[in-house]
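Example 5.3 — Epstein-Barr virus induced 3
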Amino acid sequence: FGALLSSLLLLSHLLPPVYVLHSVTKSSFSLPDPLSAPKVHCWCSSYPNATLCTWPKPPHFPTTHYIATYSERHNQASTKECHLLPPGSSSSEKFWICQLPNLKLLTDYIINITAVHSGRSSSHLTSFMLEDIVKPDPPVDVRVSPTNNRKLLVEWSPPPTWTNLAIFPLKYQIIYQWENKGIRRSVNLGPYENTTVELKALTPGRPYLFQVCARELLGLGKCSDWSMPVKITIPRKRL
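Solution (predicted structure tokens):
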């Protein structure tokens, strides 16, 4: 028996410890509602000087405040605080805004947005390179007018927020839509480097919707959202 006891003691030292986990039911312990991490969207509306990150105001935690920092991926010891703008008082202004000024070109950045509420916190960590998130604002002052030979002249102005147009030009795409027997159809044209395009081969008497989007000339990032639509009907008679 003594030899058996010695063997059991030796075996107990060699085996890893065993832990028993006890489940806790909701009735015996109530956890607070989880504080979800903010869903952050970043874009550069004027390359390379205007970068914003936004996230929606949480509806269930109105007193939530945020800590927003960013750093270069290869120099995380040098962390900077983001300039935060809280949502406005109107019902349409439901987003927090983080301004990131003077980012370097061709550099990976890490941004950390931490939501804090009632002693709890939840973070969103993401990385980006400035060139990947370029997205201009939509073109403005879109005008569509018929000419005297049944063509359409489409004109627009660059987004005023794109401040380095001479150094970083834009290119543009046009989309026009119409309905034929209840089916919506569309044609996408471009890219164009000018802000004036003459179109032909459109059907007289048919209403069309025209919109324009802008993108950095070398193709960085994405095209802007489409501009506000302009509706026009091709005259049946020559002007």
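Remark. The domain at 143-234 is CATH 2.60.40.10 (Immunoglobulin-like).
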